[in-house]
Amino acid sequence: xxxALLLSFGVIFVAExxxxxxxxxxxxxxxxxxxxxxxxxxxxxxxxxxVSVFFGHFLGMSLPTDLMSVLAGLxxxxxxxxxxxxxxxxxxxxxxxxxxxxxxxLAVMSAFFLAExxxxTMLATITxxxxxxxxxxxxxxxxxxxAADALAIGVGVLLxxxxxxxxxxxxxxxxxxxxxxxLTVTGLTxxxxxxxxxxxxxxxxxxxxxxxxxHRDRRLRADSDTEAAVPERSLGGHEG
Length: 240
Fold this sequence. Notes:
GO terms for molecular function: metal ion transmembrane transporter activity. Belongs to the GDT1 family. It is a multi-pass membrane protein. The chain is mostly helical. The protein is about 85% helix and about 0% strand. It is built from ten helices and no strands. The relative contact order is 0.20. The mean pLDDT is about 80.
């Protein structure tokens, strides 16, 4: 249980760094009392990870341990690439963070609960619960996410600005890749040739697709920035 708790804490803490929900936590903390935001996040996280552990534990019981380890390694590879790709608050989520109704606690709790459904931290918790003590995973993942969001809240309250997202994202991605290598090698130890071949093929496909999406996103951002800068220069020249 202790090993599962520590592993889950580390994985989820890293997964939450630079994540969309961490940005939401910081946004809320800039407007409302930090302890209300943190309490709401804790309740929402406890509920989401309870659901994740339930599904991961009972689904994982019927699957081979080595296969689950390989799948976990592939999942960590995806999470690492996902982290490099980056999370951003879209317009709807930004509005949700800036326009809260009468009950701040319920608004923040529901927002975080919905934001975490299908997020990479939920998927990571499900993955961990398939092959580790469910109680340890539940406690560790919950504490890990709350700790990461508390860090964002603290920085938001003290500095009034976002964390350096790119630096954090790169560091988190490196740790994810480390988890990916460790879990994949553990799962492939003594594995059959077809399983090794299938795993290598999956790794190549994941890296290829991830690299393509990251490159496309960078290009689209650059084009968008260029288009936004052109009217500003034109306006400045007209006024001059």
